[in-house]
Amino acid sequence: MALQPAPKKVVLAYSGGLDTSIILKWLQTEYRCEVVTFTADLGQGEELEPARAKAEMLGIKPENIYIEDVREEFVRDFVNPMFRANALYEGQYLLGTSIARPLISKRLVEIAEETGADAIAHGATGKGNDQVRFELAAYALNPDIRVIAPWREWDLTSRTKLLEFAEANQIPIAKNKRGEAPFSVDANLLHTSSEGRVLEDPAQEAPDYVLQRITRPEDAPDTPEMIEVTFEKGDAVAIDGEAMSPATILTRLNELGAKHGIGILDLVENRFVGMKSRGIYETPGGTILLEAHRGIEQITLDSGAGHLKDSLMPRYAELIYNGFWFSPEREMLQAAIDASQTLVSGTVRLKLYKGSVRSVARWSENSLYSEAHVTFEEDAGAYDQTDAQGFIRLNALRLKLLAARARRLKG
Fold this sequence. Notes:
This protein is of the alpha/beta class.
């Protein structure tokens, strides 16, 4: 296969940290190309302006430095649609890292078009899922875009080589970056993910210092706290009666969940690239949001629609995990899910207490719950109990036929 010519301009997903700063310099030295940096504020809780100063120090023109607050777009257009599906990968993971990648890729491709860049670059390694997510999203949005993944190309295969490259190119190295970090962290408004090093042996309990944002349940308040979450068409729109923007709601739920030790997950998952990986996920607000959304669906969603939706959810979650957000099958499933949410509106009251969140009440103008039909008291003719006899007989017919055949064959 013929070698590709060096790119002239590359848009780099840039955090301002040591690794992406090394990548920035490597792109400049390896390809002799112009670099545009994109730093997304996804609610990771870090000051992002230092990334601007770092990029300028590494020779990036001010007009080529993009730092954007995308928190509202992240929750409105990515997190909320996913939560309408109650999406859980392998039954537990709330997909906090997975759902952020298509938004980052979307902006990388858009900025490349705006600036005339002919390539984008990311800092994901060749062992993980993120390389797949970044690149599948990019190609879905621009089939002609070139993607550069330095971790799959360079020979900086050890921490020592990375630090030597940084020193040789006058890239500042913080004292706490000179040794091996005890674990790596990815964070955004939905969750914090910790993996690697001290977490690599799944037979060993994760040390408490791994927790980044959630109070240990043992240290959470001894008094439960009650909150109310209001939904409109499947999306949370208010907390305790106060209307808020999507990102503000998730921020507030994060605060409440973190305070009460809610949302800690220790998971060994199956990566799309084939290996198993152990991670500690902290998703305080998302855990509350999932319980609340389930709570309002209980009274507003028909059983047929709800059960079908639940059967679609594992496939939907897998598509997001594997990087297929911008795929026709995910969009088809999303259309079905969104159609189910038309009347999923109302309020859920939840109890937060020492690592748990539990729906304790729910109400809606669209409720399908009929107390007249389920009461143990006199129902005034709302339900004729004798109807159940024929219902049971019809449903038992095939079972009786199967049992009769089995008895015949046995005898």
